[in-house]
């Protein structure tokens, strides 16, 4: 087979190619083979591996002018319809040639052609700080993607200049000539994608007619997620973003390449939109990221809560809050949900949740308590009222709250309680003097803090801190480790009054993200004794993108380390100094075992 060379485009040749491909491309968007034969999924997997590298790392101008969501759908349709390796090769060349003429796609046994010699021109290449080419376009956004050698969008110009000035070595590395990504696609094919082009090479090809023709065809591509090609395209986009931009593969230890083909095959067989969403959620769950989430931008019913809440305890899910104690008591154990064994129901729900085991458990409890307005659920319960059945409606405007002390209060002589989930800094400020004079303060971090989480820390530290524990990756190539990190922290300075008494922190698997940033200060700087269970294990700013079918996907876009710059809590969480597990019996008796332990320590250590 003759190697595919980067020849000057010929309008007549492209016109014939597109005329032959148009009917298959457009008709294929409606239907994809869903037989037991895995060839369609394998073919789409080959397309997917090329799609992400070209979309996010090929620096040509023409590639920036198309609708990449619709291109994913068209590519799925055309690749899945291919009946042989040769047919797939032709399909991929037809798809990518107009927008990426310097990309080579070959049979595995053929040799790549040499690149064009460097003539000293300005180079064009991608520089990614996280992924900033999709949802995030605000000037103040954490994430930014730009092509060096091309003017950035007006709303990102200042950020782009700053990024280029602060990372000259990354810029120099990105713009080196002869930078390529060569990789196997599967199905006997391989590809070679230039990552740096001269200004001339990057410019829109002379045959703009072919690019215009592709854009017109893509405008006619349907993005209805009931179509199999759209569903598979959702997988293609999600897989690629996470493959190239997720910063925690080292911790996750999942063979992400092996996930691709089965996920595509599953998407082919999805029925209604709700089932497809579950497929995407299970895919994102594989990365073990507590921020990993899939939201539907199309079907957004009004959400309401049950009059009860549940919590994981000893392998069961136990009622921890009730607005109807005469029917459902705190401490009741959930045995069946709409006739389904509760253990099975919660196991199926956890499979759709990304993150650590402790985060999955608490999020499954949250999922249990929320539903569509006017819907109802039948529960079999066992506990205070014996075994009994109740039918409950999702009709409450907010979740049922477990019993805790007031948000900020003196709960024992000289011992203050501050619930960082409920008390804002405006609530804490009038109490600063009392807190500074207290013999002990108990901070509750079993949830997501208000601004008080950050606000109390300067009153606890003795000296300025400048730890760099957050790191946004700088990337110039697919697959590879980042070439650099943008490093920063909170840069705290002490503030009066200083809290001189002993401090205790209550924590569990509900402490995620910002909560773990606050918890990290308590633990790494040894500002308090922590009590309870491991935190969720997911920290770092969220990165976002959309899929062709209209789903928004979130994932952790930056790495967070311990304050010493070593190690990570991702997927593990922060372990407490003193482990305390809340039990069903404790819920039933109205006891908070972690809080009781803190009070006992405060009483003993304050003597």
Number of strands: 26
Low-confidence stretches: 1-36
Terminus-to-terminus distance? 86 Å
**In this structure, how is the largest beta sheet organized?**
6 strands, antiparallel
The whole-number mean of residue pLDDT values reads 90
**Radius of gyration based on Cα positions:** 28 Å
How many helices? The count is 20
The proportion of strand residues reads 15-25%
**SS-derived structural category:** alpha+beta
Multimeric organization: single chain
Defining key terms:
single chain, alpha+beta, 20 helices, 34% helix
Question: Can you describe this structure?
Answer:
There is one protein chain. The protein has 607 residues and is α+β, with helices and mostly antiparallel strands. It folds into three domains: 218 residues, no CATH class; 91 residues, Pdz3 Domain, CATH 2.30.42; 198 residues, Alpha-Beta Complex (2-enoyl-CoA Hydratase, Chain A, domain 1). It contains 20 helices and 26 strands. The strands form seven sheets. Strands 2, 3, 6, 19, 20 and 25 form a six-stranded antiparallel sheet that branches. A six-stranded mixed sheet has the order 16-17-18-21-22-26, sandwiched between helices. Strand 23 and strand 24 form a beta hairpin.
List the helices and strands and how they pair.
Elements: H1 11-28, H2 39-57, H3 68-80, H4 85-96, E1 104-107, E2 123-129, E3 144-148, H5 157-166, H6 168-174, E4 180-186, E5 189-194, E6 196-198, H7 199-202, H8 208-219, H9 228-245, H10 249-252, H11 256-269, H12 273-285, E7 293-296, E8 303-305, E9 308-313, E10 316-322, E11 333-337, E12 340-341, H13 342-350, H14 357-369, E13 370-372, E14 376-383, E15 386-393, E16 408-412, E17 415-419, H15 425-428, H16 432-437, E18 440-444, H17 452-455, E19 470-475, E20 484-488, E21 502-507, H18 514-524, E22 529-532, E23 542-546, E24 551-556, E25 559-560, E26 578-579, H19 584-588, H20 593-605
Parallel strand pairs: 17-18, 18-21, 21-22, 22-26
Antiparallel strand pairs: 1-5, 2-3, 2-6, 2-19, 4-5, 7-24, 8-13, 9-10, 11-12, 11-14, 14-15, 16-17, 19-20, 19-25, 23-24
Helix pairs in contact: 1-3, 1-8, 2-3, 2-9, 2-11, 3-4, 3-9, 9-11, 9-12, 11-12
């Amino acid at each position: 087979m003759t190697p595919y060379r980067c020849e000057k485009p010929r309008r007549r040749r492209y016109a014939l190619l597109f005329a032959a491909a148009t009917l298959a491309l457009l008709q294929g968007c409606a239907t994809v083979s869903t037989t037991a034969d895995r060839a369609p999924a394998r073919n789409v997997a080959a397309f997917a591996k090329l799609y992400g590298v070209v979309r996010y790392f090929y620096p040509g101008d023409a590639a920036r002018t198309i609708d990449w969501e619709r291109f994913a759908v068209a590519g799925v349709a055309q690749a899945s319809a291919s009946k042989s390796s040769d047919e797939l090769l032709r399909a991929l060349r037809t798809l990518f040639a107009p927008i990426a003429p310097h990309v080579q796609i070959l049979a595995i046994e053929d040799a790549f052609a040499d690149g064009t010699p460097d003539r000293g021109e300005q180079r064009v290449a991608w520089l990614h700080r996280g992924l900033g080419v999709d949802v995030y376009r605000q000037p103040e956004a954490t994430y930014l993607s730009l092509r060096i050698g091309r003017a950035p969008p007006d709303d990102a110009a200042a950020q782009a200049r700053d990024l280029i000035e602060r990372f000259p070595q990354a810029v120099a590395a990105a713009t080196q000539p002869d930078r390529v990504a060569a990789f196997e696609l599967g199905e006997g094919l391989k590809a070679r994608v230039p990552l740096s082009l001269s200004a001339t090479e990057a410019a829109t090809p002379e045959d703009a007619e072919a690019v215009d023709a592709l854009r017109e065809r893509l405008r006619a591509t349907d993005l209805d997620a009931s179509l199999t090609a759209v569903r598979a395209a959702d997988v293609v986009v999600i897989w690629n973003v996470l493959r190239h931009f997720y910063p925690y593969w080292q911790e996750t230890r999942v063979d992400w390449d092996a996930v691709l083909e089965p996920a595509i095959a599953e998407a082919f067989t999805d029925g209604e939109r709700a089932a497809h969403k579950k497929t995407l959620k299970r895919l994102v769950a594989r990365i073990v990221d507590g921020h990993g989430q899939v939201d539907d931008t199309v079907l957004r019913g009004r959400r309401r809560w049950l009059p009860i809440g549940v919590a994981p305890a000893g392998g069961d899910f136990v009622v921890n809050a009730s607005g109807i104690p005469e029917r459902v008591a705190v401490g009741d154990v959930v045995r069946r949900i709409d006739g389904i064994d509760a253990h099975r129901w919660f196991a199926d729900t956890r499979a759709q949740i990304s993150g650590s085991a402790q985060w999955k458990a608490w999020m499954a409890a949250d999922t249990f308590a929320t539903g569509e307005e006017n819907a109802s659920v039948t529960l079999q319960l066992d506990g205070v009222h014996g075994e009994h059945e109740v039918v409950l409606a999702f009709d409450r405007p907010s979740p049922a709250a477990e019993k805790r002390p007031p948000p900020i209060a003196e709960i024992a002589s000289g011992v203050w309680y501050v619930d960082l989930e409920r008390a804002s800094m405006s609530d804490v400020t009038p109490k600063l003097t009392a807190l500074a004079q207290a013999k002990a303060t108990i901070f509750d971090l079993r949830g997501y803090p208000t601004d008080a989480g950050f606000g109390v820390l300067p009153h606890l530290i003795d000296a300025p801190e400048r730890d760099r524990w957050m790191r946004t990756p700088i990337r110039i190539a697919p697959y590879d480790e980042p070439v650099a990190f943008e490093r920063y922290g909170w840069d705290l300075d002490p503030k009066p009054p200083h809290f001189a008494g002993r401090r205790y922190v209550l924590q569990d698997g509900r402490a995620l993200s910002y909560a773990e940033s606050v918890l990290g200060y308590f633990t790494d700087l040894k500002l308090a004794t922590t009590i309870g269970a491991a935190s969720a294990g997911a920290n770092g700013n969220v990165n976002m993108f959309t899929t062709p079918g209209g789903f928004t996907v979130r994932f952790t876009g930056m790495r967070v380390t311990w304050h010493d710059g070593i190690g990570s809590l991702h997927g593990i969480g922060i372990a407490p100094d003193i482990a305390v597990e809340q039990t069903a019996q404790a819920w039933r008796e109205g006891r908070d075992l972690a809080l009781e332990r803190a009070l006992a320590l405060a009483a003993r250590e304050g003597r």
